[in-house]
Amino acid sequence: MPSAFDASNPPFDRLTQQEIGELRAALDIGYLRPGEAVLLPGQKAEHLHVIIKGLVEVRDADGTLNAVLGPKDSFDSRALVHGAAGEDFIAAEETLCYLIPRALVLGLISRNPAFAAFFYSEVSAKLDAFARASRTEGMESVLRARVGEASRGPALVIEGSASIATAAERMQEASINAAYVRDAGRIGVVTGMNLAKAVLLRQLPRETPVREVCHFDVIAVDAEDFIFEALLLMTRHDKRRVAVRAGGEFTGFLEDIHILGLVAGNSQLIPGRIDRARSVADLAGPAQDIQRQVERLHRQGVKVEQIAEITSDLNRRLFVRLFDLLAPPGIREHGCLLIMGSEGRGEQTVRTDQDNGLLLDGPVPEAELEAFRRDFSGALAGFGFPSCPGHVMVSNPLWSQPLEGLLRQLRLWVMERTPEAALNLAIFFDAVGVTGRTGLLAEARQALAQMMRGERALIARFASLVESFETPALGVLSTLMERVGVGSDAIDIKKAGIFPIVHGMRAMAMDRGIMETSTAGRIEALVEAGNFTAPFGRELLSALRVFMEYRLRAQLEAVRRGTLEHEALVTPAGLSAADRDILRDALRIVRQFRELLRNRYALAAFG
């Protein structure tokens, strides 16, 4: 039976063939009766258990069910490596397990860093180590990307009879360095270098037809071809660019710099395109590029927090340029564009809802304001930013008004003391000013902090929003559903993990008058203020990044399948055993944090 051990199951897939042989030679099999306790809190483990068949419940000392482990899941790495079990492990039914001796596991840990990562105590270190394997595949993933992901369009087509001067002007207007030339049924290509050599070296007149300086030996690839196929063509023909076709039509060019952009996530190319935009239509391409690069960066193994940082910075550039293009002089001079939600916190990856607003230092002509509200929100919708279900958008007069009006609204929300008012305060507390009179936002945030000072009951009600959603025990619903033939469960990772951490930190920051907007910044400030220990702060940030990573995977899958309503759903049955273990650790940290909040703010009073 031990010879049937699945060495492809993480973390054992990190072992060498020799190490797998050692492991299989040392394996034993154990039988657990229903109700039998395998490990109890404080007990040291002599084996690492890997479930073959059956179910094992994981419970706290008070009997709370934290998880249900099934085939290929392992336990308990903490008891094995870090001294003693922290939970009860009890067989829920007849269960068979592989038993891997403790001494062998410790030996493998000391020799194999990739395998050792599974046994790290901090979930961030564990997640990062498991992500390294995908990072090593970054270049391979680039070569396996499609040409359409990297090529630039739309294609500029110039008639062959047009002059060199005309061609140069049109290429400059389009901010491109290569164009197609159509002449007597042929298609050629002309580049900026061709034009420069024709005038400077060959000293041709500027009126010379462009057909005289272009070349008609066009090397082309299809938009659905792989990057590596395009690279082969570029190498074979000594070209720095190739033409790209889609549906039989030329759509743009693929250049070596574009392929480099894939490796770097393309983030160094997008800002220039945003800055050069002369119309709203010119921003549509960069807006789509920002979203495409999220998948590209993730495929290359870039950390989720770095993806969020890059994406947030690019989105802010996009919003600022759109504001500059659409806002009339009065709004540009007297207004401040706000972003809120995950955009404001710098934690956005795949775009979700619009969360933005406008703050003014005084009245502006109503017709101008109304036109800007409509055009700004409409343009973002056209770029693929969905409307906010709660209408937290520039188009909503509640969120785009003079400072005096906003301050009155904040006071009303403070006095209302309802969950809806608390949610609106939470949204505003994450606001960041990205352009214009940003001092207006600083004044409003300081005013809100003054209104909340000493309001312990109000802060407690604000914190009670963390109880809006449960943090489930991993595997419990799955077990129940599978037994009645309904299918496996799915966890809403945003509600179960991200929201409790984000809002809990928001509440504690508001309580202490901390003006940081990012969750990581709030955690750091609260640790410095002595609200909790540095190790627990690291664990909270680690757990948040785990949830962000798993949500990003779910979002990208939902985009691919066209099921955006599932963008936050994670199905534990679809995760590897190692990923389930990391998710279980992260959910455990959230439950600890929620208990801290319940005790600190007496949240039972709001039940």
From TrEMBL:
SMART domains: CBS. Pfam families: CBS (PF00571), cNMP_binding (PF00027), DUF294 (PF03445), DUF294_C (PF10335). This is Cyclic nucleotide-binding domain-containing protein. InterPro entries: CBS_dom, CBS_dom_sf, cNMP-bd_dom, cNMP-bd_dom_sf, Diverse_CBS-Domain, DUF294_put_nucleoTrafse_sb-bd, GlnD_Uridyltrans_N, RmlC-like_jellyroll. CDD domains: CAP_ED, NT_GlnE_GlnD_like. One of its GO terms (molecular function) is [protein-PII] uridylyltransferase activity. Keywords: CBS domain. Residues 11-126 form the Cyclic nucleotide-binding domain.
